[in-house]
Design goal:
single chain, 170 residues, elongated, N-terminal domain of TfIIb, 7-stranded mixed sheet, mainly beta
Length: 170
């Protein structure tokens, strides 16, 4: 977060980070808040199996992830689920069939900036396994895993590891 030093208002190298969520300019009193960002993760479930993606980009390239992503402005969490599943895997889902499961805090590092997120977990049950039309730029592959086969150390993000510690046994 210390990479941001120049004030966007006055241009001086006087922007100070408070260590949690706020930059302030000691020259012109400008304040920039870095609030929590909303993100969704969708557990696509068929019987006792879950569809994971494998990340094809940093952060955590090569690790397992759930389909999902950041909530856009003026978008609900459920609308984000629909958009992200279509963008990442060309899957069309019925928004009314999404089941809220939990929310957990997380930290997402991107280009040396730490984004505090609130990850909102949903479940979406499918009637049969399916092949995925991948958006290769974000995902290198998809993997169906039984709950008993999930290895927490292979999961990309802390919030998902914490989530699956409980979910695996449910």
């Amino acid at each position: 977060m210390n990479d941001l030093t120049y004030c966007p208002k006055c241009g001086n190298a006087s922007l100070n980070w408070d260590g949690e969520k706020k930059w302030s300019c000691s020259n012109c009193d400008y304040v920039l808040y870095h609030n929590v960002a909303g993100a969704v993760a969708v557990v696509i479930k068929f019987n006792d199996e879950i569809l994971f993606t494998r990340r094809n980009q940093e952060p955590k390239k090569g690790k397992l992830d759930l389909a999902g992503g950041f909530v856009d402005p003026k978008e609900s969490a459920e609308e984000t689920c629909v958009r992200e599943l279509f963008e990442e895997m060309k899957i069309k889902i019925d928004i009314s069939q999404l089941k809220y499961l939990a929310s957990l805090p997380n930290v997402y590092e991107y280009k040396n900036i730490l984004y505090n997120t609130l990850d909102i977990f949903y479940e979406y049950e499918v009637a049969e396994k399916f092949e995925v039309d991948l958006e290769i730029s974000e995902i290198s592959e998809t993997v169906w895993l039984k709950k008993s086969e999930i290895k927490l150390e292979e999961i990309a993000f802390d919030s998902q590891r914490i989530f699956f510690e409980k979910y695996k046994n449910s």
